[in-house]
Amino acid sequence: MSAVNRQFRLAARPVGLPKDSDWTLAESHVPEPGPEEVLVRVHYISLDPAMRGWMNEGRSYIPPVAVGDVMRALAAGEVIASEHPSIAVGDHVTGLFGVQEYAAMHGAAVGKVDTELAPLPVYLSALGMPGMTAYFGLLDIGRPSPGETVLVSGAAGAVGSVVGQIAKLKGARAVGIAGGPEKCSYIVDDLGFDAAIDYKSQDVPTGLAEHCPEGIDIYFDNVGGPILDAALAHLARRARVIICGAISQYNQLEAVQGPANYLSVLINHASMTGFVVSDYGDRLAEGVAEMAGWYAAGKVVSREHIVDGIEHFPETLLRLFTGDHDGKLELHVAT
Amino acid sequence: MSAVNRQFRLAARPVGLPKDSDWTLAESHVPEPGPEEVLVRVHYISLDPAMRGWMNEGRSYIPPVAVGDVMRALAAGEVIASEHPSIAVGDHVTGLFGVQEYAAMHGAAVGKVDTELAPLPVYLSALGMPGMTAYFGLLDIGRPSPGETVLVSGAAGAVGSVVGQIAKLKGARAVGIAGGPEKCSYIVDDLGFDAAIDYKSQDVPTGLAEHCPEGIDIYFDNVGGPILDAALAHLARRARVIICGAISQYNQLEAVQGPANYLSVLINHASMTGFVVSDYGDRLAEGVAEMAGWYAAGKVVSREHIVDGIEHFPETLLRLFTGDHDGKLELHVAT
Questions:
Q1: How many domains are contained in chain A?
Q2: Among A269, A279, A282, the residue to mutate for chain B (most B Cβ within 10 A)
Q3: Domain span including residue B254
Q4: Is B193 in the same domain as B311?
Q5: Number of A:B CB contacts under 8 A?
Q6: Per-residue pLDDT tens for A31-79?
Q7: Of A17, B30, A20, which is closest to residue A8 (Cα–Cα)?
């Protein structure tokens, strides 16, 4: 076992996009597991838009990462030492292991996963937090009915791609907004979306008028900003807008841009409802079980974009905000 | 019967606040009722913030008033001629009679009211559209539970005053935001609100921190703008925000100010839901019946601010936007 645990620690709270100087690449000792703890060799680290929010000071759904601490991140790996009775060396697990090569965690804070059913990276994607975000947001808040039109932004992303696929499984129409021709053809040709709007080359309101001629029944918003406003202007009666994220706003130096068209909810008797996946913590097993069935049956496709080497964490994180990735962005740390 | 029917017609679409030149005071003949129609002598005309929206071009929940047409308005009056089998001369009725002294309406488009139970102006206030707006918005969307904190803006207004009173009837705490010491003492001393925040002299976020220490469970928004943002910043978990209106934005020359704090719904698993009272058209009888019971028992107080003379319509309408009125603003046209 290597005696060194490389880890990225938050050096400063970013202003706008995180810079290299906001991080310290530290080398610490590999910890020994304490009572009821397990030692995890991290294999894959998940890069998620929510991480940007965790770097900010102030009240949110979880406390911010303290300056000096190891950066919080979901990750997947293998147990290499265990002091917990129900977790064995060799088990594959996921949890908030952080941006580091080894993590000592209480056994209750890790989740065992079955790598016979799906490869480990999928447990950070369709069978992990992004997939569960899509599952509970769309089904619990959106409640799609057959024939309804479901619009999703960030449609080629880890959450959006699953939203569209579940919408199709429920008999709804799926329309995706994504950036660039490759992502648009991916969601239509490979994932079965009914239509795609390329926000980089098309006028989004025109695309919505064309592809959602009877209005949008459900809009699953991952981006905020002008695309949220365009969707609000095209709501159907009793539409449900799911506020899942606002990646266009996370690095804003100025105030967040509120949706100027919010009064569309008034004239359409519509709603905007927000959530984070941890709100569904007590129902995760139900979501993972149903999603695993769909995945095993080939009804839900998961795609990961894996970058090799923990040392590439700072620049890889930025790719979340430029959209320069195809599928769930993960760092590969060890095998 | 006077041979002249004075009426205000829309002369031009207002830019910002309506000006005198946006209106024409026309004199037409008093119409004869056609088949199944009734002729109504208008006694009271209701002045409502929604009227500002009806003057704008473009899609909304009802078509705009056409330039040249009689201005749309709710009103109450007495039937003076009837060609409808179930409506008699002498019946008191409400309906969309417009800003005029006489209206010929199909019998199906008027609602009979009982002036033994409440005076006619109350049927444009607590027992009319504003009261029903408060009733369905708070009870159907807000769903207050005993002990929850209900915040309402425009709290001394026709809708807000009823929202707070119903909140109290349901065992919730009622906190109101109003402009000026008279309105604030009115809602606390006369209507039984638990607390008032005077947005003209107090810092609203400070007032919310003081009077909603465990967060806002339900926010009934009549105003939009900075007050909506302040409320969003103080939401409790699973809060319900009811988007009923946005009087601060109706005369905006620039774009509507969207709520910059809308991501508070995400971190709090909260919702913003809009409606207009006509969404509850099929349940109005239920609402009026329950409200009439509360009114008769003295549990809900209705207050009207009545201005004499149809000729004062243009300047009286503007008082909606300056807040210069105490209670439901109505024009008295005839007795």
A1: 2
A2: A269
A3: 129-278
A4: no
A5: 107
A6: 999 999 999 999 999 999 999 999 999 877 889 999 999 999 999 999 9
A7: A20
CA distance B303 to B122: 8
C-alpha–C-alpha distance, residues B90 and A51, integer Å:
69
Residues of A in contact with B268 (CB under 8 A): 61, 274
Is the same domain home to B269 and B139?
A: yes
CB contact under 8 A, A260 and B255: yes
Taking only the tens place, the pLDDT of each residue in B9-43 is 999 999 999 999 999 999 999 999 999 999 999 99
| Residue A226 touches chain B, beta carbons under 8 Å | no
The answer to the question of residue B180 being in a domain is: yes
Residues A59 and A76 in one domain: yes
Give residue A2's pLDDT.
Answer: 52
CATH code of the domain in which B72 resides: 3.90.180.10
For residues B146-168, give the mean pLDDT.
97
Tell me which chain B residue has its CA closest to the CA of residue A60.
Answer: B267
**Coil, strand, or helix at residue A287?**
helix
On whether both B144 and B86 belong to a single domain, the answer is: no
Residues 25-64 of B with CB under 8 A from A: 59-61
In a domain, residue A290? The reply is no
Q: Is the pLDDT of residue A247 over 90?
A: no
Is the same domain home to A181 and A219? yes
Residues B47 and B89 in one domain: yes
Q: Give the pLDDT confidence of A149-194 residue by residue, as tens digits.
A: 999 999 999 999 999 999 999 999 999 999 999 999 999 999 999 9
Of A243, A258, A270, the CB nearest to B266: A243
**What average pLDDT does the structure give for chain B?**
95
Instruction: Find chain A residues with C-beta within 8 A of B267's C-beta.
Output: 59-61, 274, 276
> Distance (Å, rounded) from C-alpha A124 to C-alpha A305?
11
Same domain for A52 and A149: no
Interface list for A 259-318 with B (CB within 8 A): 259-276, 279
pLDDT tens digits, one per residue of A251-307: 777 778 899 999 999 999 999 999 999 999 999 999 999 999 999 999 999 999 999
Provide the ipTM.
0.88
Q: Across the interface, do A263 and B61 touch by the CB < 8 Å criterion?
A: no
C-alpha distance from A57 to closest chain B C-alpha (Å): 14
